[in-house]
Amino acid sequence: MGRTGGTMRMSEISELISRHRQGYSLEQAFYVSPQIFEMDIERIYRRHWLLAGPACRVAQAGDYFTYQIAGDSIVILRDELGNIRAHHNVCRHRGSRICLDEQGHAKRLVCPYHNWAYDLNGALCSARHLPESVDQSSLGLHPVAVRVVAGLIFICIASDPPEFGATAADLIEYLAPHGLERTTICRREVEIIRANWKVVAENFWECYHCASTHPEFCSVMSYAHAQNNERLADERREFERDWETATQQLGHKVGRVEFSDRGLHQGGRLPIRPGFVTQSRDGQPVAPLLGEYTQFDGGITSFMHLPLIWYVVSNDHALLTRFTPVSPLETELELTWLVRSDAVAGRDYDPDAVCWLWRVTAEQDKTICENNQRGIMSSRYQPGPYTTAESSVNDLVEWYLQELSRND
User: Fold this and answer.
1) Which residues of the chain form CATH 3.90.380.10?
2) Confidence (pLDDT) at 6
């Protein structure tokens, strides 16, 4: 069993990694140790692309929002030419935070400490009493790598970001018909899950728990019970074949992308259940059709990315989930629901109806993750075996340990 307190040496962490038993959950220290948490930040979250939010959150030039990740505050904004940029929220004078609000609108970014001002491209444009010997052009805001793909903003705080082209190509292929760049925010919620980010990740990478904890989800998605019943599994397979044929006849996208050397992502299109055209309480439309769709096909587009990004898009609305490690025992969850940009709340859609399924499901997931974390902190916790229904979780853990072992 791993250690729950005290300072761990690198040799001890290396020993934990080397003795991990494949097919089993991690030892206790991986879920509680401050030292391992810091390694997670440095070797996972500072190295990989992260979902910042939807592009519609910065609809106009000057719109911005901030994202707190790994001790850094990042400002994501749209510049005067319509490009989306990201900067470290750190004044080049003496390091003050510049944007203090979570979101807002500004023609220039002005530090509240000594009023150094930066244009939307990050260049320093005003600094009172700066000596002539100082090169003002060298004092722009530190940039952050940013990619905007199919209406979604991704950032990477690494100095040398990994390749993202294959992931971008797959996302464009599957998300482009939904037109997420032409959406607006229906609702956005942020809450703290009192559990280590890996506890949260393992939960979201399997549906082994769905039948026992998500009755609403199971009432909408017919695959949830199919994994536990061979008759239902046969019915689901037949339904999927029929749905795929009908969907192709409509000219809509079908298919899947599996994990491969192309990128740290998987996803594609799958059907909901017979008679359901969207992920709503009764399966009936809750908002105007998105993007290129002129009729419902009863399917969703769902993608997951390592380390922990997940979103699902119906024909008439979308949900983005953003998970951010906060501390060894806390993970921030941001839920953002999108609808068509010209849709009007109360006339074209009811926000409660749009958000129903994933609002209740997220609350249930929060409860079971926190219960899981409490159990892991027991003196009697030991790593347990993953079932055949949790192979994706085992893959997640093996990838995580490989990344943690890298010291480049």
Assistant:
1) 181-393
2) 66
- Was domain 50-156 assigned CATH 1.10.10.10? no
pLDDT digits (tens, 9 = 90+) for 229-239: 889 889 999 99
Q: What is residue 174's predicted lDDT score, i.e. its pLDDT? A: 97
Residue pair 349/337 in contact (Cβ under 8 Å)? The answer is: no
State how far the Cα of 231 lies from the Cα of 245, in Å rounded to an integer. Answer: 22
320-358: burial string, b at 16+ Cβ within 10 Å, e else: bbbbbbbebbbbbbbbbbbbbbebeeeeebebebbbbbb
- What pLDDT, on a 0 to 100 scale, did the predictor assign at position 5? 54
Give 304-343 as a DSSP string: EETTTEEEEE-SS-EEEEEEEEEETTEEEEEEEEEEETT-
Q: Residue 84: beta bridge partners?
A: 78
Q: Please report the DSSP string for 204-261 in residue order.
A: HT--TTHHHH-HHHHHH-THHHHTT-HHHHHHHHHHHHHHHHHHHHTT----EE--BT
Residue 9, phi then psi, degrees to nearest 5? -85, 155
Q: How is residue 128 written in tokens?
A: 């009172």
Low-confidence ranges of the chain (pLDDT < 50): 1-3
The single-letter DSSP state of residue 20 is: -
Residue 408 confidence (pLDDT): 65
Residue for token pair 């097919």: 23
pLDDT of amino acid 95: 97
Contact 277, 298 (CB under 8 A): yes
pLDDT score for 1:
39
Q: Element (H or E) spanning 152, and its range?
A: strand 152-156
Dihedral, 130, 132, 134, 138 alpha carbons, nearest 10: 90
- CATH 2.102.10.10 domain extents, the chain: 50-156
Query: Is 162 in contact with 261 (CB distance < 8 Å)?
Result: no
Instruction: Say yes or no: domain 181-393 is CATH 3.20.20.60.
Output: no
Instruction: Write the DSSP assignment of 87-136 as a string of letters.
Output: EES--TTT---S--SSEEE-SSEE-TTT--EE-TTS-EEE-TT--TTS-G
**φ/ψ of residue 156, rounded to 5:** -140, 125
CA 182 to CA 64: how far, in whole Å? 18
- C-alpha span between 392 and 32 (Å, rounded): 22
* N residues, the chain: 408
What is the per-residue pLDDT for 228?
A: 79
Contacts of 401 (CB under 8 A, 6+ apart): 17, 20
